[in-house]
Design brief:
mainly alpha; 2 strands; 40% helix
Length: 110
């Protein structure tokens, strides 16, 4: 008696969406591996990529947005005080005056 062999999935038999019991990462992986046609949000395989840093399947648009955000606010501009900008804090006049001081002159006096 012959064995059944592996089940071949034709393009028509691929489910439209991944199963709901999967996590978001699992759903993205299922779409990327063509076990489902798209996510519930409408992402297809051409919209997904493997993240270089984490190895996860992520949206290309989200990845680009995070790269741009990092370039604007990340380590490249470490001298900026980023925290205050996000908290909406405004610099007081006293702080502005301290920044305008000539620190070399003050240190030489000591």
């Amino acid at each position: 008696m012959r064995g059944r062999g592996s089940k071949r999935i034709s393009r028509q038999n691929i489910p439209r969406y991944p199963p709901d019991h999967l996590t978001t990462a699992g759903k993205h992986r299922a779409v990327y591996e063509e076990r489902a046609m798209m996510t519930r949000g409408g992402l297809k395989k051409e919209h997904l990529k493997v993240s270089i840093h984490t190895g996860k399947i992520v949206s290309k648009r989200a990845s680009l947005a995070s790269m741009r955000k990092f370039a604007d606010n990340g380590r490249m501009n470490a001298n900026r005080n980023i925290g205050n900008r996000y908290r909406g804090a405004k610099k007081t006049e006293e702080v502005r005056d301290v920044e305008d001081l000539d620190w070399n002159m003050l240190l030489n006096d000591v």
